[in-house]
Design goal:
Elements lengths: L3 E2 L4 E2 H9 L5 H8 L5 H17 L3 H30 L13
Amino acid sequence: MITNDSRHGLPLPLAAELAQLPFLDDTHLWQAARQVAPIEKNERIQELVLKQQAEGLTTAKEQEAQQLQEYAHRLMLIRAEAAVLLKNKGYDISTLRQPVP
């Protein structure tokens, strides 16, 4: 079973999701470009990083940290690709650099 897109080294579900972005209308592209991780996930990532630095992580916590890291990377890639598509359509994407309230 193939689990990665051999051209980009991405997991197939993520590669498929990114491949669908060009077909979104502009409103949905803006939504994708503005996605942010829930506060709870950000806080949990920070907790695990601090715990890892202080005392190390159990196998279960390492797996949780890995899943959260994969989620963050997925979100970053989707946001970046959506921003590129919007930029290519002529939109000013400079507002995407500003923190979300």
